[in-house]
């Protein structure tokens, strides 16, 4: 098992000493180039087709400090991405992957980095300062504001993303159905909780109270499980507020409704079937949902 750690802190320090005109190409070469296969699979252009067109840098600019805007004011944040931070990240990734060692993972090489997120970005604020991306096997991203509170949650966030990474080594991506996303996010967060404790439950679950879950979220999502397409399901999965940030219409769902529903659905599934979270993580969503029809009508406590 090889984990390729890209030390973004060193890149950020070098950027601060470079002319602004040279920063973007250096940043892309040092941090983003190793992730090109990931961007390709996600349909994100590495280079814009025309000036001002959509590409990976435009996407990152919505939530991160882009190279041209980096200043000495961010140096304290960069300092927090120290040797201990990267060591802890590697340990969390290795420990999470080790939970699946009996399944003979097809992917043995993993590339990981962390990007400095902009604390004033609305998408970051609603997620309490951190988020991750691990859905493409072999590649894991974290985006965060590295303060002490958030740093304590990083192992759990990485466990969540590793779970996604492993799942899609065995489960074929269906293009983004609501049922798959609810199940996948529920699996990932249950896995993270089992690894690092319920006290590290992500805001995408902890912000939802059970009355809202039972009375609003579950009935609505149950009747819309067949909705497909990542753009179409955004409001169902992430809620209306995030959908609006992405320029999409709402459907009446609160923050991260699909995540919260998925977490409790998978918790119910594990308790009912006695399956381990590792076993469940490699099962098709349809198989899991077939076992929990009563979840949708029973009151979650």
TrEMBL record:
This is Zn-dependent protease. It comes from the Bacteria. GO terms for molecular function: peptidase activity. Pfam families: DUF2268 (PF10026). It comes from Streptococcus minor. Keywords: Hydrolase, Protease. Residues 85-289 form the DUF2268 domain. The keyword Protease applies. InterPro entries: DUF2268. One of its GO terms (biological process) is proteolysis.
